[in-house]
Protein: Epoxyqueuosine reductase
Organism: Paragemmobacter amnigenus
Amino acid sequence: MTGTIKEALVARALEEGFSKVGICAPDAVPGTAARLAAFVEAGRHGQMGWMAERMEWRGNAAALWPEARSVIMLAEVYTPEADPLAVLAQPERGAISVYAQGKDYHDLVKRRLKRLGRWLIDQAGGEIKVFVDTAPVMEKPLAQAAGLGWQGKHTNLLSRDLGNWFFLGAIFTTLDLPKDAAEVSHCGSCTACLDACPTRAFPAPYQLDARRCISYLTIEHKGPVEPELRALMGNRIYGCDDCLAVCPWNKFAQAAREIGYQPRVGAPELAELATLDDAGFRARFAGSPIKRIGRDRFVRNVLYAIGNSGLPRLQAVAEPLRDDADPSVADAARWAVARLSAQDGGG
Ligand code: SF4
Ligand code: SF4
């Protein structure tokens, strides 16, 4: 009976727009808690204080909801149509990560998970909880346990049939569904992602020091970024795709099925982004995940990119922001002006 339900569930998930489905037990990754504790003890979570809270939940999906008997892991593809790294050669523009180019994936994936979950309850009963990038759930180890793919040397999930451009969603259910076999690493001797990282954020394969990662620095980090690191950020103003883009398994990537992930923001001119005030920022990025970081952190990032641009004409854009009410923006503007004027003077 449950085998039939599982087959129907997989078919239904694919119909809904997911690209891959796997199922594991909530306690399928017992080593997660220890790995998370080591990561936090080493301070590699940076300012993401929530990672150090409720670790007994986060490292152990079974404790999160003791009644759950199965975790259904789903992959939703957002593969870019063009090379996401091409914009790095255009210093007058800001590079915005592929995943943030379209509508907010939290909303899109969650809506789909809820529809699928309701369908499952109608078909087989039980109760469900759905999660998308939610603090208490360690989605990547669960997805590997469910056979969706493996956590590569860049620590993201990838698979032999999808590459690595996909979001993860989870449905916890009280139904005891048949489980899938866990996937193992197929990275082999490849080190492309480790070699591509502009800030050397991987202390070792399969380990990330978030404090050096541009994704973390542009999205999560509050206050000024260390000058040594901001100089390495180039024109990346929201996230970073370098380690994902170079993975050779992307030759098997599938096209995105969700129209909402089509690029809406592109690679805007830094000069225009630097002038955004709060209202302008909110209007410009309504419905986008970018809106979550707020104008101040975003303009701080834009000013780092201006400082890294090597374009003296952008100095005039940064100058008025040296007196900005936000101390991080003012600091970034002073840094950008000093860098560009040193270059302009041949220094
Ligand atoms: S996202 Fe960018 S900075 Fe972060 S680990 Fe990957 S390549 Fe390095
Ligand atoms: S780039 Fe190479 S090492 Fe990195 S995740 Fe992909 S296959 Fe693994």
DSSP finds 15 helices and eight strands in the chain. The chain has two domains: 2-79+103-173, 194-249+266-344. The first strand starts at residue 20 and ends at 24.
